[in-house]
What we know:
By secondary structure, the protein is mostly helical. It has one domain. 64% of the residues lie in helices and 1% in strands. A two-stranded antiparallel ribbon has the order 1-2. Helix 6 (92-102) crosses helix 7 (109-119), helix 9 (159-174) packs parallel to helix 10 and helix 11 packs across helix 12 (227-251).
Amino acid sequence: MVRRTFQLxxxxxxxxxxxxxxxxxxxxxxxxxxxxxxxFSNTGGLSFSDTLFTSASAVTVTGLIVVDTGSQxxxxxxxxxxxxxxxxxxxxxxxxxxxxxMLGMRIGMPQRLVLSDELxxxxxxxxxxxxxxxxxxxxxVEAVGTALLMFVFVPEFGWAQGFWxxxxxxxxxxxxxxxxxxxxxxxxxxxxxxxxxxxxALFILGGLGxxxxxxxxxxxGWKHLTLHxxxxxxxxxxxxxxxxxxxAAMEWNNPGxxxxxxGTGARLWASWFQAVTPRTAGFNTxxxxxxxxxxxxxxxxxxxxxxxxxSTAGGIKVTTLIVLxxxxxxxxxxxxxxxVFGRSLGIEEISxxxxxxxxxxxxxxxxxxxxLLTWRGDFLDLLFEVCSAFGTVGLSRxxxxxxxxxxxxxxxxxxxxxxxxxxxxxxxxxxxxISRINxxxxxxxxx
Length: 447
């Protein structure tokens, strides 16, 4: 009866699916903060501001922290953070739909609309099938990742602690969260092949998007893949290779990063890890505060791009970047249509891309401006922090701990906006209107 009354109340108020999604995430962040504030969750001395920041970072799968996760939170608190990461990464409505489906309960149209918004889908017919694929892929990949990491952590910490370390870091990696139980993230494993391969494979798979993974599983052939999957695979590969070569070239002799490592193998492993992690993974095996400014700028750009739609990653998304590049090329070629892989893209996709990019840049600029009102530290460190929060990355050059109350609030809001997606927020704020008046065409000069 209460559930029906709540649904009727939402129906009367015409609450949009993006708004419901935003409310759900906000509620989980708040209650997560309350749970982490309990005496059984932390070792003492934490404020509500600390736990709220941690909860927001976990639900939005960002990884920025103001207190050390491994030492300031008990095992219960770490389990709560893990659950928040899993819920936030795979999606709250995804879990709800999976649970209702397992219980044999019908999922109504309002729930399907919210679910489609969360998964970034326009079709409602295949949503439940996609939800099952999401759950199967996520839990399957996490099981394999945990087993592989146990080969590293069990000999070092013992069976119980080693299993927990492997499970925690696997869930954090696959969901692109970047939370670590080590105060120095994964720097102690900078040249460990198992950690470097397993962790990066986890957040690459999580960042591709469940639609791509489902497409690969179903079609199993390049020619039969959808345009979206092809763009994601090619775009991700190009970004990774470009970042790998660029990072290695710029940091090879830097005594604060690659230059301090012994052997070519260790430097290549570190270059590979730092090339992949900025696109919303959040782990690091080197100190980003010691990197050259040029490398920092490349990292910021990668953080803004992010991963794929309907994935655990943030940013403006790889497909958005590709469409922007294609639109630019089409403009200089005087072409009215975009063509890629034997398909064409319409004006609607281009409009969405332009709106998403513009809104993303506005949010980053506004967040940076607000924090600068009271910030007294290095500008580049703060820019890095803001982009990391918006891209739900979690990398930091040390600015997180120096944020005041205003800074923390702005960073939390940026993480929240980055997880929901600027386009979702735009649809939430926008109102649909049909103009009844037609005006004569005008002309303006651009460029």
